[in-house]
Amino acid sequence: MSGKMIKALMVTVLVLSFALPGLANAGQEDWPTTVKLGFIPTEGAADSAKRARPIAKKLEQVLGLKVEIFTASDYNGIITAMANDHIDFAYFGPKSYTEAAEKAGAEAIVMELNKKGQPGYTGIIIARKDSGIKTMAQAKGKTFAFTDPNSTSGFLVPNVLFARDMEVDPKTYFKEIRFSGSHGASILAVKNGSIQVAATNNIDLDRMIEKGAASLDDFIILESSDLIPGAPMCARKALPASLKAAFAGALLQINDDPEALKILQNGGYRHTNDRDYDIIRYLKRLKKQLAKK
């Protein structure tokens, strides 16, 4: 057998090991028998766990490993879980990823795409359509909800908007500020009138609409951000490189699974790396700089 044929055969075996159930961990003695997958509670812990199931199912099929889903009451709970080796992989938002990369050695592997196939999403600030609030100027003196201190669209991006573009301090601009804990909670709080204005994003608003919890007619969008890099699926740094590669390959297979995409309510995944989130680090630095003025 020629050298080229041997090389081609080795490549074929490697591809099959990532594609066929039960073969992915063949010869990988350093792989665990069970991996834990964490999800930040963008919609609340229960809904996030439900949305994680297609990913867990695909990982079990492709990797031949048992997958356990882990959720927490806030974003920091998932960061802390990875820092303490309690989870192996995690779905973070862009800002929470940069925190996890620094504190927990998280590595971005694949990025979530929106339904148009774009590698990102848009931060928005919403109010009830019938509230009489049509501009951010009219939102002054109202109650306002951030999502979580580690949220990108629910905290970092709106804070840059307030400081850089509006030159206001939200603590004095609004009558009251709350942290809702999840995008779903913020959206529902505006819908039911317990909060008048809230920061969220277009993907999570679409998810709430698709499951019938809200309607686009319920809201007016007061502000929209530029495109934010898509949420990353990440690995714990100490995991074997072969397992990280197989994890990425498994998630990319979801792109060809319409049923899974329907549950995930996204446009699939693409490869990513840490550099894609340097813009988030810039926004974090900018927020600090503006806060000193």
Structural description of this entry:
The structure is a single chain. The protein is of the alpha/beta class. The protein has 2 domains: 3-117 and 230-274, D-Maltodextrin-Binding Protein, domain 2 (3-Layer(aba) Sandwich), CATH 3.40.190.10; 121-228, 3-Layer(aba) Sandwich (D-Maltodextrin-Binding Protein, domain 2). It contains 11 helices and 11 strands. The chain has helices spanning 3-19, 45-63, 75-83, 94-104, 152-166, 170-173, 183-192, 202-210, 241-253, 258-264, 278-291, and strands at 34-39, 66-71, 89-91, 106-112, 120-128, 143-146, 176-179, 197-201, 219-229, 232-236, 269-271. It has a 6-stranded mixed beta sheet, with helices on both faces. The chain has a 5-stranded mixed beta sheet with strand order 7-6-8-5-9. The N and C termini lie far apart (71 Å). Residues 1-27 have low confidence and may be disordered.
Summarize the structure.
With 293 residues, this protein is an alpha/beta fold.
CATH homology-level superfamily of the largest domain = Periplasmic binding protein-like II
The portion of residues forming beta strands comes to 15-25%
Mean pLDDT: 89
Helix-strand sequence: HEHEHEHEEEHHEHEHEEHHEH
Q: How can the largest sheet be summarized?
A: 6 strands, mixed
Secondary-structure content class:
alpha/beta
Q: Which regions contain 5 or more consecutive residues with pLDDT less than 50?
A: 1-27
- In total, the number of strands is 11
| Tally of helical segments | 11
The CATH architecture designation of the largest domain is 3-Layer(aba) Sandwich
- Domain count: the total is 2
**CATH topology of the largest domain, anyone?**
D-Maltodextrin-Binding Protein, domain 2
Under CATH at level 1, the class of the largest domain stands as Alpha Beta
Q: In one word, what is the shape?
A: globular
